[in-house]
Amino acid sequence: MLTVNSAGEIADGVIHLDxxxxxxxxxxxxxxxxxxxxxxEIVGLLGPNGAGKTTTVKMLMGxxxxxxxxxxxxGADCFADRVDVQRRVxxxxxxxxxxxxxxxxxxxEFVGRIRGISTATLMHKxxxxxxxLGLTRDxxxxxxxxxxxxxxxxxxxxxxxxxxxxxxxDEPTNGLDPVATRAFLEIVKSRxxxxxxxxxxxxxxxxxxxxxxxxxxxxQGRNIAGGTVAELKRMAANAESLEDVFFEVTGKSLTD
Amino acid sequence: xTEHQPGTVRSxxxxxxxxxxxxxxxxxxxxxxxxxxxxxMRLATRHKDDGAKLLATLLGILFLGISFTTSYQxxxxxxxxxxxxxxxxxxxxxxxxxxxxxxxxxxxxxxxQYQQEKSTSADHQDMPAxxxxxSIRELTNYRLNLWNTNAExxxxxxxxxxxxxxxxxxxxxxxxxxxxxxxxxxxALSPGAESWLGSAYAIVFCCLFTGLTLMPMSxxxxxxxxxxxxxxxxxxxxxxSREILSGRFLSMTFVRPMSWLMLFPVTSTLLWAMGYGPxxxxxxxxxxxxxxxxxxxxxxxxxxxxRCSASFRMKKNVQAAASIIGxxxxxxxxxxxxxxxxxxxxxxxxxxxxPERMTAGIGGLIMLPLQGxxxxxxxxxxxxxxxxxxxxxxxxxxxxxxDHGLTSGNEREGNRTPxxxxxxxxxxxxxxxxxxxxxxxxxxxxxxxxxxxxGFQVLINPGMVAGIDAxxxxxxxxxxxxxxASMTSPHVIASETRSMWIVFSLPVEIAGYFEKRTRVWRxxxxxxxxxxxxxxxxxxxxxxxxxxxxxxxxxxxxWVASLVVYSIMMGNATLPDPTExxxxxxxxxxxxxxLLFAGLFGTLIWKGDPWQVFSGSVLCWFFGFSxxxxxxxxxxxxxxxxxxxxxxxxxxxxxxALVVFFFVMVVTSGLNLLVSYTIAGITAAIxxxxxxxxxxxxxxxxxxxxxxxxxxxxxxxxxxxGAAWLAVxxxxxxxxxxxxxxxxxxxIIADLRKWHLVILAVAAAxxxxxxxxxxxxxxxxxxxxxxxxxVFASALLFAILHPGLSFPPVFVLGLATAWLYSRSQRxxxxxxxxxxxxxxxxxxxxx
Lengths: 256, 847
What we know:
heterodimer, A: alpha/beta, four-stranded antiparallel beta sheet, 10 strands, disordered N terminus, B: mainly alpha, 0% strand
């Protein structure tokens, strides 16, 4: 599955997008996108609305199929071998919805059961993560009564209970309160330190600058710039922050 | 009484139409609610849907017309054409009817007592036999004349009584049991007689009205547990909450088709029949307005107040209760309508035992004052007072709820339940059960309603269970099981499409996941069916032995039919439209399709002979599986809005080829059989070749087989099997008679001496059938199932499409040829084998 070259390094990323194109009818949502994420790396997917970030994330989750190109996680095709991929991946959608007449704890139980996690382990995980995110108090409540932030926390918990090797998130801190945002950032960092490959899309450039090892800026379906924050800053003249780079890069290509 | 017959075809049709009318009126109700605030917007954006809605509305009007006509007839039956045919008033006539029934009932009691005594005492011959028929006649005449019956009617009635007695061989019981004729019995009944008819009308109307008010509240489309999105939308406009409520109130009363399509015809018919004549139309208009205001008050309170202040569980419980009460009162009302002139002991009981004004409830209270001479005046006062109370009460309650703001009750602070721990190891079925139990409304619909409705039918129509045998038992069980199945799949689709992403982010196959869940539901359906059948059987004193096979057939039928029902229902699965505030629903046409299919299948179980039931079930299973294949493909791409899998060849293509073949056979049936067979074969072959050239099926690797040994062996085995079966047909008892009968009816085996049939058997059939069944059907099946399953399934399909009497050898032939094809990927060995087998059969029939 994983190709290892003679030097013992991993040649392909854990997440590997090779010239991926996705069309919706005549509209090109993602255009020949290339992307690698290595283990322990946090990669931010930046870009204006409609740049193709969510489409990319959905293709990674096997919900959409690329029109052209290969999209792989641990060498397995995300669409054809969806089940294999999902065993090692945690996913946090932008706007999670749940069965309204289940309690949060029961949804976690359901996910744990499908993933084959023992009750003791699951309970331990829920206590640990729920405590950090400040959700424990609300887990006994029906999800229909959850606020947006609570839904997000629950979905995050559901993505983490099986200690995924890859974490894919769509606008993860959207709707979270400051306390939960900080907790979230701590969790993400510690996961990355433990070797989890993390890819997330965001609009929060400050946060991305602080958190990400690398950033990919998408525009009109293409990654027009990519690299570490320092590299990106070097690309644009007089750039002091990632925000400057973002405007520079996307603005430039808008005029193209 | 002879009217006690179990459900005749006519009454069955009446019930069916009424149920369909109700279902459609609910749909109309829903449309009308949508139409008020945003009709223009919706029309502009959703033309496609509105065509279907228009069709549903037209159908609804049609069904309502039918239900209106039948209820008019029922009203007439209830009034019994009193003024036209008899010098009595309608009420008096009804009373006489009632008394006659009670006389007959006492007769029956006396007779059974008499028979008991007769059987226990040895000296029954010594009983005095002094009472003659004429004395009974006199007595009856006297009794009936008390009620001013004319002489002719009285004579007819007394003759009926006498013949009833004679039928039981009880000419002489009156002397020994004179008590049934105490005059006091009649007099005790007379005070209520005047109001009987009015009370009966009131009860019928009240039941229907209550049902129709409560049923929409309990439907799944109205999820009381979440906030009303229309209300939320209106709340964002510069309108005060009072204005919003008033608007909603108007939209629910006067712009609602239900009022005008149902309430108005029904009330005006009732009033007309009660003696108002054309003035009944005006009175009906008043009653309609009053009723719709009253029902709107109730509904508005439920819609707004319940949503805003009750807890999640409470709402679901209220919905469940509304659904039970609503359904039961609807059924009572309909049964009372259709009871008409038939025996209605329970209606008599209701009318005589429950104080009339109490039974009548809101609807009845509105109707009751109409009985008096000053009816219009009383209508104007009482009805309007009640309607205004309900309407204003509902409005005020709703307005008060809105004063707290637009929240759903459990969103309010301090309402959090304490954290629940992980309970235990729940299986997938456990989660299914949890979901069902949480959705109390659905649980009642699935689990409680079928036994409740059957029990209710038994109660109001005792004649129905007088003849419980295996076929009735089987159909009752089948109905319960399929009900559960068809109720649960909308639940899966409608309530969970938004949370489908969870399943997509878990390491499970989507189709397999849903298949597992449907298996849980099917098992539940089977368990419910078995429980109901067992209960009825125990209650009726044992499982019937005659036709017992229909019971396992019904159980298997639930398994098969629910596959079809699920596929039809889940074929509708789409992602929710984010602009659509309500949850996606199952189209009404799909529901009707499922009802129709379940009805046909139930009829098959009820009427068919064993062979028909078996072959029909197998064919339905194939049909269901091919539909399910489509669903599986759709589920896989559920979140993939623009792309779907390249449609390959599936079982539905295989079935289509067979349908093409048989269709052409039927169309050309006037021609010579050989010619028609050849034309059909060629047509089907063209279809197969065309579809094979469009979608190439990859070759299945050959599995080494030595045809030189395998082919002769298989041929010998098949011919031996055929010969053995012919011997069985000639000598073994049940088959010999059937075989003889089929030969007399012109079986093809008897005609095998004709030359063209010989050509058909030896040349045409092997070529066509091998190409069709092995070259196409089996080839597709080999890509669907593992090899052995495919071989078995294709042989089964092959054999059940042949005459039932030749099933065993043809099945073996199908197995052999399918096995040869699946191993060698060649058609010619099968053709040779088939020709040799058919030739051998022809040769045997020539000797």
